[in-house]
């Protein structure tokens, strides 16, 4: 059965490494739902967070295949219950007269913030789990979403779970 | 010592024990070739007619010698011509280092003359690849590439070197040759070994399925000892052929689509399959559901990603096959399975396993057996791809490891000539045989010129049936004899062709010419081609249709 899963990957910060990782998914016939990447506390190491769907076979294969890549240092399937998962949304909504206060009200509930305002539109920023972002987008749809972008998921283990210290076993 | 990137490349290769390379010069590798020239006898370069053959030659060289093969090509078309060869090495886990020149860094990305992003192109078909953008990293990149190619499960590594990096200067500091990183045998899981021992104890009909990993880890003796300990027959994947002697009583021969009847049947009748250094290719299993029904699996491999990829394993032991078998053998007590042994023996001697072939006719089997008489047990046989390849797998009695060089995973027609050249050179220019078909041979026959230039003692046997026999066989069996584009209707005279290239050519059209012509051919110096005329409707049998099971096996045409 297909379930959502989350991979955290530490890679050497080398040219082409993102292509290596993402092309492995397409080559092996696995899909990526979201991918985010950035430098870590060490400039030599980047961290990639991939959210995908698949059954146990897919999960196991993708982890093993990723571990074979020379530039990949660590690959872990994250335990969704003990991981802080966040995504950032930027959304530009049409602001017709009289509607702005409704939007502001929702903003307070969702803890979003205004990052830009123009006579015709308001741009909002929201951080949270994907489900919260989905809900906020649903709420905004009737007002007219002009454009929208999300960063994709990034995630970090809670407490003592430190990715670079995890010992892999085959 | 201060030197150019081009010289660093050559010096680092020599430092790492590379004494033989294959390749083809061109604009973006001129400086490397200049350094090869200056290096003189310290390193031998073999020029092919086409880069594809150079890549296949490096691959074959690696397979017969156990050392990494090195190939050099220029940018653009030179580099793209390597692609089939690199993919072939990737699928058959062969350690090759491909070095390509590229345009200068300032010209990269401008669609410059002969510019191709070979780094991007080869990413999915290499174990790892590099584009070197800093001359200070060049030597270490080459060292690391060799280490990656030869460590663990071997595979190809490509290094793309822009022209200005070849011209740039840096201090070269020699280093010792690095040895392949071996997996620590202490890491083999005791628990997994215990579980494997338990599964074997509980099995009434164990079957050992061995592949190329046995050859790579030099584990033939350990495998045979294991078979004796658990009283089980051995079937081989095509890549596993030559791991143990063909005539060994435990050896049932190749399994799978065109495997021997007894091997495939015993495999399907078994209750436990111990897979050793093999990856359950679809050509070996047929229908995966039916194949694994009612069976348990122990999977031994150096690559953790192979476990459970094609067949779910009950127990897996990860590690170098030789180390794992040694440890497993030490933990096993000998057990006898007389009933199973008798069953296997009767399969072995059954008429299905010993089909009667027409006598008096020039059959592929007769040709192969005649060649075998002239070859020593450690002589190398290369093949192309198609029916002849399967006939060789079935009938050539391989005895010594690393004596079969064939395109297993990729199934690349045209592999043969380059492979034969590389095999021959990898074995100190001793007598080497290439079995090919008229279809495969037509793909890369230009390399006959390479064989002649180097006066290689190659015996090239063209199984000439005037058709693309393997495809024709499928058309006969599954497409109601609609022979779409498989009847070649070519007029090539292979004897004259051989002579035109400066080689010797013979033709065998009937069985009674076979032994005398073969005798002459094997006495000939330099490359010799034998045009063996066989019937176009000769089939490779037995055959388990794709996705089928042992119950679907075709024994007679």
Short description:
The complex is a heterodimer of chains A (170) and B (557). Chain A contains 4 helices and 9 strands.
Write the layout of secondary structure elements.
The complex is a heterodimer of chains A (170) and B (557).
Chain A lengths: L2 E10 L4 H11 L4 E8 L5 E10 L1 H13 L3 E6 L5 E12 L5 H11 L2 E5 L3 E8 L1 H11 L4 E6 L3 E4 L13
Antiparallel strand pairs in A: 1-3, 1-4, 2-3, 5-7, 5-8, 5-9, 6-7
Chain B lengths: L1 E3 H11 L4 E4 L6 H10 L4 E4 L3 H15 L3 E5 L3 H4 L2 H9 L4 E7 L15 H5 L5 E4 L6 H13 L6 E6 H5 L1 E3 L18 H12 L4 E5 L1 H5 L3 H11 L3 E3 L14 E4 L6 H9 L2 E5 L5 H4 L2 H5 L3 E6 L13 E4 L2 H11 L6 H11 L15 H11 L5 E4 L3 H9 L8 E2 L9 H12 L5 E6 H7 L3 H6 L4 E7 L4 H10 L15 H8 L2 E5 L2 H13 L4 E6 L24
Parallel strand pairs in B: 2-3, 2-4, 4-5, 5-7, 6-7, 9-10, 9-12, 10-11, 12-13, 13-14, 15-16, 15-17, 17-18, 18-20, 19-20
Antiparallel strand pairs in B: 1-8
- So how many helices of chain B? 24
Q: What's the pLDDT, averaged over the residues of chain A? A: 94
Question: What is the third-level CATH name, the topology of the largest domain in chain B?
Answer: Rossmann fold
Strand content of chain A: 35-45%
CATH domain class of the largest domain in chain B: Alpha Beta
- Note the gap between the termini of chain A: 23 Å
Question: If strands are numbered along the chain, what order do they take across the biggest sheet of chain B?
Answer: 3-2-4-5-7-6
Q: Give the radius of gyration of chain A.
A: 19 Å
């Amino acid at each position: 059965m297909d379930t959502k899963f989350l991979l955290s990957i530490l890679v050497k910060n080398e040219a082409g490494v993102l292509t290596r990782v993402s092309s492995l998914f397409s080559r092996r016939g696995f899909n990526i739902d979201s991918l985010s990447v950035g430098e870590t506390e060490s400039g030599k190491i980047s961290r990639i967070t991939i959210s995908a769907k698949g059954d146990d076979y897919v999960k196991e294969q993708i982890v093993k295949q990723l571990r074979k890549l020379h530039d990949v240092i660590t690959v872990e399937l994250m335990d969704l219950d003990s991981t802080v998962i966040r995504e950032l949304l930027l959304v530009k909504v049409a602001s017709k007269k009289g509607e702005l206060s409704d939007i502001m009200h929702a903003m307070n509930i969702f803890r979003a913030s205004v990052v830009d305002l123009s006579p015709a539109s308001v741009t909002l920023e929201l951080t949270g789990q994907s489900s919260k972002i989905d809900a906020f987008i649903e709420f905004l749809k009737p007002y007219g979403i002009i454009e929208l972008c999300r960063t994709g998921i990034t995630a970090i283990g809670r407490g003592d779970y430190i990715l670079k210290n995890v010992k892999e076993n085959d | 010592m201060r030197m150019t990137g081009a010289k660093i490349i050559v010096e680092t290769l020599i430092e790492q024990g590379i004494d033989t390379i294959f390749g083809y010069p061109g604009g973006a590798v001129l400086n490397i070739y200049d350094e090869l020239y200056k290096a003189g006898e310290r390193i031998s370069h073999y020029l092919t007619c086409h880069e594809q053959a150079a890549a296949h030659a490096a691959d074959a060289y690696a397979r017969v010698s156990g050392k990494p093969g090195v190939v050099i090509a220029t940018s653009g078309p030179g580099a793209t011509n390597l692609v089939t060869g690199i993919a072939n090495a990737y699928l058959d886990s062969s350690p090759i280092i491909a070095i390509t020149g590229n345009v200068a860094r300032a010209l990269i990305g401008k669609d410059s003359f002969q510019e191709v992003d070979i780094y991007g192109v080869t990413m999915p078909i290499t174990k790892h690849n590099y584009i070197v953008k800093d001359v200070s990293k060049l030597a270490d990149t080459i060292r690391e590439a060799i280490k990656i190619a030869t460590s663990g499960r071997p595979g190809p590594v490509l290094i793309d070197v822009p022209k200005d990096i070849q011209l740039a200067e840096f201090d070269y500091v020699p280093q010792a040759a690095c040895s392949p990183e071996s997996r620590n045998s202490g890491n083999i899981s005791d628990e997994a070994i215990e579980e494997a021992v338990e599964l074997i104890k509980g099995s009434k009909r164990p079957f050992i399925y061995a592949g190329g990993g046995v050859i790579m880890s030099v584990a033939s003796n350990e495998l045979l000892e294991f078979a004796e300990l658990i009283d089980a027959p051995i079937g081989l994947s095509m890549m596993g052929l030559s791991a143990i002697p063909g005539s060994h009583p435990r050896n049932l021969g190749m399994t799978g689509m065109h495997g021997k009847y007894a091997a495939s049947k015993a495999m399907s009748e078994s209750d436990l399959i111990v897979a050793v250094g093999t990856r359950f290719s679809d050509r070996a299993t047929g229908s995966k559901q039916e194949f694994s029904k009612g069976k348990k699996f122990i999977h031994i491999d150096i690559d953790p990603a192979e476990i459970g990829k094609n067949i779910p394993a009950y127990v897996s032991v990860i590690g170098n096959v030789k180390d794992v078998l040694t440890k497993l053998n030490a933990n096993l007590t000998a057990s006898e399975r007389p009933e199973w042994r008798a069953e296997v023996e009767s399969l072995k001697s059954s008429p299905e396993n010993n089909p009667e072939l027409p006598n008096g006719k020039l059959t592929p089997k007769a040709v192969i057996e005649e060649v075998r008489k002239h070859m020593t047990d450690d002589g190398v046989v290369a093949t192309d791809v198609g029916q002849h390849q399967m006939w060789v797998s079935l009938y050539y009695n391989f005895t010594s490891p690393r004596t079969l060089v064939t395109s297993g995973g990729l199934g690349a027609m045209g592999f043969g000539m380059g492979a034969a050249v590389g095999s021959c050179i990898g074995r100190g220019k001793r007598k080497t045989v290439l079995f090919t078909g008229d279809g495969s041979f037509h793909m890369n026959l230009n390399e006959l010129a390479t064989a002649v230039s180097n006066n290689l003692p190659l015996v090239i046997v063209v199984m000439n049936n005037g058709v693309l026999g393997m495809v024709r066989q499928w058309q006969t069996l599954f497409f109601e004899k609609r022979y779409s584009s498989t009847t070649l209707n070519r007029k090539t005279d292979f004897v004259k062709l051989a002579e035109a290239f400066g080689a010797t050519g013979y033709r065998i059209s009937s069985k009674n010419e076979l032994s005398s012509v073969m005798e002459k051919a094997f006495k000939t110096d330099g490359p010799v081609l034998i045009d063996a005329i066989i019937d176009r409707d000769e089939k490779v049998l037995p055959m388990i249709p794709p996705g089928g099971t042992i119950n679907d096996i075709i024994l007679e045409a």
